[in-house]
Amino acid sequence: MDVEVDGILVAAHELKAPLAVLRQLAFSFDEMDARGEHIRSEMINVSERAIRQVNDLAKIRRLEDGLFEMEPVAVRAVCDDVSHELKKLFNSNARDLTISYTNRSRLVVANRELLFSVVYNFLLNAMHYSNEGSSASLTVKDKKDKVRISIRDYGPALPMEIWREMREGWINKPVAMAMRSSSSGLGLYIASKFSRYMHAEVGAIRHRDGTSFFVELPVSRQASLFL
């Protein structure tokens, strides 16, 4: 593993404990006025999202052990779960999220836990970079013998070097993104690593008014009793 990336993973692991303490401290506050309750809620939500990313980084270490099994996964159910978890965040930041499902193939070959993280990180990225009052969109559609999950934002342009890396299939390490300066590219790095493990294709499309990130997964031919 790259020394720089390995250092990031070690640092992330060290951050998990203080983040958990911060979250617990926020829960321990006594009753407060409306503004205080809002601040407490934000503290809890931010710490929980940070802990999720730390956990995702820890999973990168475990990819080499092949512990994440591939199986038929109901792709719409995963997208529903992610959008439900992030809906409050979109609403509190005056962003809208539209969802469109047109896929006839309901099952893909993936690992549900890793796919959830891929969609989650793409959507979180879209929330941060869609302009206030605008909409981000999540679409799921068939693409030959695959299913494409696409997340579109309406923010600053994606830097050309990041677009090239995404076009080639994955990002080697987290990098700062010009015009998207509040991001280290951490979410995109996690999403690309997990997608590569699942043998899924990832990419990005640059628009005049934003970017679409997508992941394509092979259709599962196995019938499921859980649809």
What is this entry, summarized?
The chain is of the alpha+beta class.
What does this structure look like?
This protein is an alpha+beta fold. It has a single domain (3-218), classed as Heat Shock Protein 90. The protein is 49% helix and 21% strand. The protein contains 6 helices and 7 strands, in the order ααβαββαββααββ. It has helices at residues 3-28, 34-63, 75-92, 112-129, 160-167, 186-197, and strands spanning 71-74, 96-101, 107-110, 135-143, 146-153, 201-207, 210-218. Helix 1 (3-28) runs antiparallel to helix 2 and helix 3 packs parallel to helix 4 (112-129). The longest helix is centred in the first third of the chain and has 30 residues, at 34-63. The chain is globular.
Question: Averaged pLDDT, please?
Answer: 79
Strand content: 15-25%
Measured distance between first and last alpha carbons: 39 Å
CATH topology: Heat Shock Protein 90
Estimated helix fraction: 40-55%
Number of strands: 7
Tally of contiguous helical segments: 6
Which structural class matches the secondary elements? alpha+beta
Keywords:
Heat Shock Protein 90; two-stranded antiparallel ribbon; globular; 7 strands; single chain; 227 residues; 6 helices; alpha+beta; 21% strand
Give the helices and strands, then pairings.
Layout: H1 3-28, H2 34-63, E1 71-74, H3 75-92, E2 96-101, E3 107-110, H4 112-129, E4 135-143, E5 146-153, H5 160-167, H6 186-197, E6 201-207, E7 210-218
Parallel strand pairs: 2-4
Antiparallel strand pairs: 1-3, 4-5, 5-7, 6-7
Helix pairs in contact: 1-2, 2-6, 3-4, 4-6
